[in-house]
Design brief:
By secondary structure, this protein is an all-alpha fold. The chain contains 13 helices and no strands.
Length: 256
């Protein structure tokens, strides 16, 4: 039980900028519980976003969308956005594999990284605006960060690291497929109340498999940046899916 609590605190320290002034032991057990708690932290983030959106129901949708997006980025400290920019710079360089890895490790951000950041935030903001304008039930906002972080867990556990060093590799040594399943438990429990979440889970699984294939093909494995980029990409993937449901489905058998 103590390791589980430490794991939640470790997940909060890694995934958010919420001050946690506690020295958490760095052990295989705490790392395993931290990974299992990633979607739980996502639910906490999503809950805060949903509360803000609920409190701004009488505010114009564009203002609410920008407020929600700003809080979303602030809570995570832009941690996962850095991975998106690094990968965009590496792929945009059109260089051999060794040089792409050098670019990923370079702390400087290039033009491709900046473009990826701008377009990612723009698309997220516009899709949030559209969903808020459609007055979609706010449970979707609760689930987006949770499923995005589960996608990161699945990629981390199920994809070999490109190099046997680094933070992602050290985490991976403590993990197994069981941790991916256990991380999904809080999401499954909520899915009992909203069956549409099952389809979202399946969609995210497809996204993870696609990203896994791409990372193995383009980089021969993953690192921590790719896990962060998968979280961001998974959230955008789900926003596009949700917008498609509300835009094109006149009658939803899923109860959305």
């Amino acid at each position: 039980m103590k390791n589980a609590l430490f794991g939640v605190l470790l997940a909060l320290q890694f995934l958010t900028r919420i001050p946690i002034p506690i020295a958490v032991p760095w052990t295989p057990d705490t790392r395993r519980w931290a990974v299992r708690a990633y979607p739980l932290v996502g639910l906490m983030i999503g809950g805060l976003l949903a509360l803000v959106a609920l409190g701004m129901q009488n505010v114009p949708a564009p203002v609410t969308a920008l407020t929600v997006l700003s809080l979303w980025v602030t809570l995570s400290g832009g941690l996962h956005l850095d991975g998106v920019m690094d990968i965009a710079d590496a792929l945009g360089s059109n260089q051999p594999l060794a040089r792409r890895w050098e670019i990923i490790k370079d702390p400087q951000i290039g033009s491709f990284g900046m473009l990826a950041l701008v377009f990612l935030l723009a698309w997220k903001g516009i899709l949030l605006w559209a969903l808020l304008a459609y007055q979609a039930p706010l449970w979707w906002l609760l689930m987006l960060p949770a499923l995005g972080r589960w996608a990161g867990v699945a990629l981390l556990v199920l994809t070999p690291c490109a190099q046997q060093k680094g933070l992602a590799w050290s985490w991976q040594q403590s993990l197994s497929g069981q941790d991916v399943a256990l991380a999904l438990v809080p999401i499954v429990l909520i899915a009992l109340l909203a069956p549409a979440i099952v389809l979202m889970m399946l969609t995210v699984t497809v996204f993870v498999l696609l990203i896994r294939w791409l990372m193995l093909r383009l980089f021969n494995g993953i690192n921590g940046d790719m896990v962060g980029a998968t979280i961001e990409g998974g959230e955008l993937w789900l926003l596009i899916l949700l917008w498609s449901w509300w835009q094109f489905a006149t009658v939803s058998p899923l109860g959305i």
